[in-house]
Fold this protein.
Amino acid sequence: MDKTDATSRSTGPAILESTGKSESLNSNSQLIGLLKTLWRGDIPLVITYWLFGFVGSLVIYGISTELFNATSNKLVKLSMLAAIVAYQVLVTVSIWRASKKYKGKRGYAVLAQTAVFLGWFSSVPKIILSVLLVVAD
């Protein structure tokens, strides 16, 4: 470690404490980096499928359902549906790409791809119906 590294590390927290902006920018950069890595399928399949696909979807759908039922504002409801679709696209592409890069037993990758396909097959009619119900209301 040279002197430049030591100096930048020692002044880093002071900058964060004094402005708060650097910390926010750093968290945004980390989130964007995570999303890019996820999108490319560079996160291992098991993590992508179970953490982002399974647990993440349960959380997104759970929160969205509660908020959806708690509001009567059409724009808010349509925005939540759009967020669900965006998350679903992110997770679908991520799982599909991670399964293509998977080095383990090919059957697990095929099962993940099948689950993604069946998930879309069941979700699309529900999303279309929800949009129609919101618009018709």
